[in-house]
Amino acid sequence: KESNAGLAMGIGYASGFLIYLTMFIYGTMVMRGVMEEKTNRIAEVIISSVKPFELMLGKIIGIGAVGLTQFILWITLIISLTSVAMGMLPADIQHQVTALQQNNGQMAAGMASASESAKQIYAMQHTFATANWTLIISCFIFYFLGGYLFYSALFAAVGSVVNEDPQDAQSLLLPIMMPIIFAMVIMTKAVNDPNSTLAIFGSLFPLTSPIVMMARVAHGVPDGVTVVQLIASMALLVLGFLGTTWVAAKIYRTGILMYGKKVTWKEMWKWAFKNN
After folding, report:
1. Segment 222-266, tens digit of pLDDT
2. How does 120-155 read in b/e, with b if 16+ C-beta sit within 10 Å?
3. Is the N or C terminus of the chain more exposed, i.e. has fewer CB atoms within 10 Å?
4. Which residue has the higher pLDDT, 125 or 267?
5. CB atoms inside a 10 Å sphere around CB 205
């Protein structure tokens, strides 16, 4: 039980931190790409052929596809290296590990006792086998994509209103970064107590759910999170993405062609909710 709890905590920390890191890195890439197109006046040429919403969504999906491909390659590489490492073990240790797997951790009658190395390898494999990797990897991909799409739309909106001064972008990024940092704080509690009120709230709230929910999913279903909560969290994240994309698209449409003016969040909200 201690090994399983330690594995769940490790998976929760690792997956939550990876999603946090990638949301920030790829979101910043989207923002910088939009800023470059605006400052170089390339956006004006592109918008003559496509709608601003299509331009924004194309950039978001393109960079997101790069991130997803990178994760798939990482997963494939880890599995391949693990298989190669097991194949390089001495033949006697491989035989002992196989015997332990077939007899639930005990050597068969008439066989010599397993070495300490074989026992440790078997214990590690047995602990990793207790995790529901299909659920964890599926949820990781969903929450990576959902979190990335949710925040990258906001990063694109910020990039569209920034001119040549990078300091303007830093001041506008604070309201976007605060929920991500808050999610990391909640995650540190959720990995230890996945059913606490704060962990449940954080895993359902779209601004924090991509990071916090992975800390709960690592403990399994229904021990860490119930099926109803998982479905509700996914649905709220999808609705949140659609809402932020709609808001960001209206800001992007106005900001991408505006030059020489320092824009505040107050003005951006006016563009989002008062423009037709």
Report:
1. 888 999 999 999 999 999 988 888 888 888 888 887 777 778 878
2. ebbeeeeeeeebeeeebeebbebbbbbbbbbbbbbb
3. C
4. 267
5. 18
Q: What is the pLDDT of residue 110?
A: 47
Q: Which residues contact 14 (CB under 8 A, 6 or more apart)?
A: none
Rounded average pLDDT over 75-87: 83
Helices and strands counted in the chain (H then E):
11, 0
Contact 203, 212 (CB under 8 A): yes
Residue-wise DSSP of 4-64: HHHHHHHHHHHHHHHHHHHHHHHHHHHHHHHHHHHHTTHHHHHHTTS-HHHHHHHHHHHHH
- Residue 5 near residue 130 (C-beta atoms within 8 A): no
pLDDT at 79 over 90: no
Please, which residues have CB within 8 angstroms of residue 68's CB and are 6 or more apart in sequence?
141, 144, 145
Closest CA to 135 of 257, 45, 231: 231
Residue labelled with tokens 């596809």: 65
